[in-house]
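REQUEST ID: PR-0412
SUBMITTED BY: lab tech R.K.
PRIORITY: routine
TASK: structure prediction, single protein chain
INPUT:
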Amino acid sequence: MTRAALTPANTARARQTKKRTRIQEENEGRILDAALEVFSSYGFRGATVDQIAERAGMTKPNLLYYFRRKDDIYLAILRRTLELWLQPLESLGESDDPIAEIRAYIDRKLEMSRDNPKASRLYAMEILQGAPIIGAALETRLKTLVDAKAEVIRRWIAEGRLAPIDPYHLIFLIWATTQHYADFDVQVRATLGEAAEGNRHFDTATRTLEAIVLNGLLPK
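STATUS: complete
OUTPUT:
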């Protein structure tokens, strides 16, 4: 795979027009949804543009109007996943109630692991490979946001509303525990057996993580 920087230039071709139609947006979404299924099944090297086009229900030339290469489709999926993961973090601190805000963040992250496991696993594989495609975004978009939210948590600590913990490692802890349920879904289900049927285990996971994390954050 070629190394591609995560920049505005590496977007869908249809996005380069000044006005994008609803049909263009829908078709891009169809392509990315189809590509996620194909990449999840065959990996980047095994996946083909023909497979993605067939899965999306469109011709290959039509698909290539939106994305020039397989690399561009893969990049777009990773960008979409990263933005999806960052949305709950962006809202952290809006109500200025530390416990409520962190509880909401845990809950939303677990919901995302429940509803988007394939995207999470594809993103995790990119990270495990050294982030050759989205490395630039981790050092810019991700880092900038995490730095800003770490300052919010530091303020809460300074005001005596949270226990004195390291904000970064709190965020890492929430990432690790919530995304585990997507990235290690097979292991979780093998261990829990019937308790995981119908995603029932996510209710227990939510209560457990809330109790452990939030109790640890209460000022002593």
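NOTES: The radius of gyration is 19 Å.
REVIEWED BY: pending
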